[in-house]
Write a structure and sequence with these properties.
The chain is α/β, with parallel strands linked by helices. Helices cover 43% and strands 17% of the residues. It contains 13 helices and 14 strands. It is globular.
Length: 380
């Protein structure tokens, strides 16, 4: 199987190699298409391949074809480093999309900065773009933004005592830190703080500690992958009654499928594309998000997720920058990415600047959802 995945990765890298270098503009992609974070990387890769083909069918960019050079990391930061080196020094890409996860992204930032090639990450941690790094951008709402939205909802519901159970990976650690920092701003007290490893298959012990903590009024689970689904199942098994919140790291129907009936009543934050058809007509990204949802589902036969939406926005932010630059020079592309204004993607409206390499408007880029009858419901 390991050898097969390596062959697949090379196959991705050879995508469009029948064209000569002068006929193409190469964009790299680093995605976790297989492994524990495949629910992130699989829709990301499918989106990138589909829309690259669509761009080329419409004439390409500035008269040149777009060549996608994609590698599958399996969510392994060491592989992300290896493939980044290959993209930069062998494949000759002018920009890179990804990686899928925060840990991978943080691992490759030094190389991207040294090479002076722009990176548009699809991961959640705020540390990716704070502090600002010249060649590093992000297209996904930060974990800090998610914490703020959840804390506001807790405040609105007059729930002041919060327990945390967090994943120990890069995203879980970062969001845990951000939530602990912003909680006091909303009058929220952290009364329990538990963690679990990415290979753990039962979180009953941690949840029992939370259950036995006095005055817990709500529980928040920063994390992604199968961990949050296991937490959700164990939560129901232990008959915990306090409201359970999840992060935008589970904004996919795959989470509901894995957690099953235990997911009923769980509340989470999500990019708007997940509920594109349920958004008010006045929502600034409804048109883009609904068009993407319909096209993605028709092209792939799979239900839309927020993660494929990240890839859509990253691709178009970069290709719009190439068009505006009139050049495939990475430094000029970087400058134009930083000038992105009023871009209504599927993740929200983006206005970047020299001091903001995300530029995502929280109001348009994040919705609060409940899970009811196995589906999403927007919390008004």
């Amino acid at each position: 199987m390991k050898k097969l995945l390596q062959i697949i990765a090379v196959g991705f890298a050879l995508f469009s190699t029948t064209l000569t270098a002068g006929d193409t503009i190469k964009i790299g992609a680093i995605v976790a298409a297989t492994g524990p974070a495949s629910f992130l990387g699989d829709p990301e890769l499918k989106t990138l391949k589909h829309y690259t083909e669509k761009i080329n069918a419409a004439g390409g960019i500035n008269g040149k074809k777009l060549e996608l050079v994609a590698y599958d990391t399996g969510a392994n930061p060491k592989k992300a480093v290896t493939f980044t080196k290959r993209l930069l020094h062998k494949d000759g890409v002018v920009a890179i999309i990804g990686p899928s996860t925060s840990g991978e992204t943080m691992a490759i930032i030094p190389m991207m900065e040294k090479a002076e090639v722009p990176l548009v990450s699809m991961a959640g941690a705020v540390a990716i773009i704070n502090p600002v790094k010249k060649y590093i951008f992000k297209i996904v709402a930060t974990d800090r933004m998610a914490c703020q939205r959840i804390m506001q909802d807790l405040k609105d519901r007059k729930l002041t005592n919060l327990a945390l159970i967090s994943g120990s990976g890069g995203f879980g650690k970062s969001m845990r830190k951000q939530c602990k920092e912003v909680a006091p701003d909303y009058g929220i007290k952290i009364v329990a703080d538990e963690t679990y490893g990415k290979k753990d298959t039962d979180m009953t012990a941690q949840l029992l500690k939370i259950k036995n903590t006095a005055d817990v009024q709500a529980v928040l689970n920063p994390g992604f992958g199968q961990g949050p689904a296991i937490v959700t199942k164990n939560y129901a098994q232990l008959k915990l009654t306090a409201p359970l919140y999840q992060s935008h790291g589970v904004a996919s129907k795959k989470y509901i499928e894995i957690a099953g009936a235990a997911a009923e009543g769980v509340r989470l934050v999500s990019p708007p594309v997940v509920v594109a058809d349920k958004l008010d007509d006045s929502h600034p990204v409804k048109k883009t998000a609904l068009a993407y949802k319909n096209e993605y589902e028709k092209a792939t036969g799979s239900q839309v997720s927020s993660f494929g939406g990240h890839a859509y926005d990253a691709l178009y932010v970069i290709t719009n920058a190439i068009k505006a630059a009139g050049s495939a020079d990475p430094k000029k592309i970087r400058d134009e990415i930083e000038k992105t204004q009023n871009f209504a993607g599927v993740d929200g409206v983006v206005n970047m600047s020299a001091t903001d390499h995300l530029g995502l408007d929280t109001k348009s880029g994040m919705v609060l959802l409940d899970i009811k009858d196995g589906d999403w419901t927007i919390v008004k």
